[in-house]
Fold:
Amino acid sequence: MIEWSEEHLAIRDAFRKFIDAEIRPNIEELEHGDTPPYEVLRKLYKTFGIAEMQLAGFKAQIEREKKAAAGDGEPKKAKRGGGGDSTAAQMLLLTELCRVCPGMVTAMGVSVSLTAGTIMSKGTIAQKERFAPALLTMEKIGAWAITEPGSGSDAFGSMVSSCKRADDGGYILNGSKTFITNGPYADTIIFIAKFDDGETPADKRQVLSFVLDRGTKGLTQSKPLRKMGQHSSPTGELFLEDVHVPADRLLGESETRSYRTGAKDTFGSERSGTPPMALGIVEECLSLCVEYAKTRVQFGQPIGQFQLIQQKLAKMEVARMNIQNLVFRIIEGAELGKGMSFAEASAAKLYSAQAAMEVALEAVQLHGGNGYMAEYRVEQLCRDAKVLQIYAGTDEIQTSQIARSLMAD
Structure:
């Protein structure tokens, strides 16, 4: 894939029209008020029939899984490829949202892709039918809780949250999580903890995941935390004190299926979502900078006539082209049924996150004193871009994993 088709551009324009009408005018309240992004996202889903498409895809997958379980039909995920159009639409939506409000993409992605995605990949058929539909349609909001106050990049090694068997066959959960996207408002939470069987050393314990409901006794969800950027994505802390859950809340309903095993799939999927986010930030910064360079007059001429300003704009365009090609790679891979490898996803995230941050910083610099003011949108985009280098694995972690992959060949 080398360019957007006319159909793609029509989809992009439809998304852009909705965003210009529903999000741009309300950006101040979404970013600095007390308005969570979920109602706007639900309206987006309704307007474009996304909820119906999600349900249709869910029902088709469940039907295949039931047939496979009964020994009648193809195994799940047997059909690969042909998903280029749906992936293109998804990439366009993420890009257009990130031009205006990157935090909304984070909130939506964690709820739909991470929370519902974890249930769909690790849950039993009964658990998928019970929990996934409401998350996939954004009827309910999801949170994926792995990071702890004492951990970060070493999520599993430093994890202290625990789960133990209860006398009635269920489990008792204890621990705390931090930096949890949607944490303050989540209806459904994937809580990841180490299984304490009383014998296995802490560093070798199985890592299990549980589905929790808002309001569960012993579960406390904090108010939104204050942070540098992405204010439209509520982030909070979770505290669990002797939370009792029945056995059917253990994802997969098996203590032998450690979350460590499939962690790369989850992290790889999360990382491959960075390029379209970065593309939106870069496109918006470039558009704002080009307009400013044409209209801002200094020393008797528009600043766009100065070579140093032209160099900044040119480098922004190079970054935009490179990130867009990464997005095209993702779409083409979906069409062929070939997703990114873990190392490729890490490389894509590393480059696109760094490029977005560099472009956003240059956008602020090009705007001069105005760029440092919240009145000008490059200020928000610069703050929002930074977290792309932190969540889903820091730049340093991406670098390490790319290098390890190279040396393993």
About this structure: The two ends are 28 Å apart (CA to CA).
